[in-house]
Write a structure and sequence with these properties.
Layout: H1 9-26, H2 31-47, H3 58-73, H4 79-82, H5 86-95, H6 103-118, H7 122-133, H8 138-144, H9 149-174
Helix pairs in contact: 1-2, 1-3, 2-3, 5-9, 6-9, 8-9
Length: 176
């Protein structure tokens, strides 16, 4: 029997499951892993339901949990199998996507990012390709490029910032 102040968790799961799955997919998670991550989000939400404030939007609360789960995935060794493209996911996370957007809008974001990457100097594009497409480690790149891992990480951070700023500017211009 439920207490009068307890959540009808089953009803909330049914109400928010489709939107949560779409949000997780919009963050760049490989479609084959979306259901698993959504289930993990609901498990975390169930365990932490006492922390949910009634005046909050339950969907937004779930999306916050999902965002943290996706960020956690990036630190796991298995991330290469779940995340379509680590660089895209990182940019989408840092852009603060808060809700699922229809497929054309997500495609616009990805195409905008590709266009911004294309505007980079060749050495910057090559560094992104080595790190994110080939999955090479910063320490290995540093050895090849006669640099340090810290310098490579800093360079990648600057490149991601430049791409993010380019994307924000272009998406602002494209907004109706």
């Amino acid at each position: 029997m439920k207490h009068s102040n307890s959540l009808d968790f089953d009803a909330l799961v049914r109400e928010h499951q489709a939107g949560l799955r779409a949000f997780i997919r919009a963050l760049g998670i490989d479609e084959a892993w979306v259901d698993d991550l959504a289930q993990e989000v609901f498990i975390v939400a169930f365990k932490k339901q006492a922390e949910f404030r009634r005046d909050e939007d339950f969907g937004k609360w779930l999306r916050g949990i999902a965002r943290r789960q996706v960020m956690g995935e990036r630190t796991k060794a298995a991330r290469r199998h779940r995340i379509m493209h680590d660089g895209i996911t990182e940019v989408l996370l840092t852009l603060g996507v808060e809700k699922y957007e229809p497929e054309p809008a997500r495609e616009l974001v990805v195409e905008t990012m590709k266009g911004c990457v294309d505007k980079l100097a060749e050495p910057q594009r090559e560094l992104l390709r080595f790190r994110y497409e080939e999955g090479r480690q910063c320490k290995d790149l540093a050895a090849e490029l006669s640099s340090t891992a810290a310098a490579i990480r800093k360079q990648l951070q600057r490149i991601r910032t430049a791409v993010r700023k380019c994307m924000e500017a272009q998406l602002r211009e494209a907004a109706p």
